[in-house]
Amino acid sequence: DTGVSQNPRHKITKRGQNVTFRCDPISEHNRLYWYRQTLGQGPEFLTYFQNEAQLEKSRLLSDRFSAERPKGSFSTLEIQRTEQGDSAMYLCASSLADGPQPQHFGDGTRLSIL
Amino acid sequence: DAKTTQPNSMESNEEEPVHLPCNHSTISGTDYIHWYRQLPSQGPEYVIHGLTSNVNNRMASLAIAEDRKSSTLILHRATLRDAAVYYCILIGNQFYFGTGTSLTVIP
Fold first, then answer.
1. To probe the interface with A, which of B97, B99, B101, B102 has the most A CB atoms within 10 Å?
2. What pLDDT digit, counting tens, does each position of B84-107 carry?
3. Parallel, antiparallel, or unpaired for β A65-68 and A75-79?
């Protein structure tokens, strides 16, 4: 069973550097979601795609954040000029588009900003 | 935005039923109620969802109030592997997770 795959699992970087995360969804899923989760909190929605179209973005997604899904398959989330407050777990999920389908989550990328 | 309210924590003895409540008084007519759970260092895992009628699957049951302003996730026999944070979310609400209920299962 090939579930949602996220790489890397951990990323440590210095403040001000750019970082990029990758998410490979379940192959037949055409919706892909990005969330951010800090310690003790539930996941916070960032953005989602249906195929290659980015349909919704949260106000949490500042102009330093950009997400792409160029061919409607894998997606990347880039953070430019990282700040201490960006330290979090970044989760990706995918689902089928029809109706209220369950989201299948990866195990996340943990970002630590030094 | 419609939001959900859950107790911060609950405890249950192993092999006993657990009822996890969720209030969602501002739910809209088209919002589905989903439940997920999350183990440490893992992504959330789908448990169950419903719209108006009660639902059962191999993991749990979902009881939805007639006015849909609350719901209850029922684990029929808690095991140690059920210890997790349980989230009730409304799909159609920008996928708002809240802080969930941390379930402790006592052997």
1. B97
2. 999 999 887 567 788 899 999 999
3. antiparallel
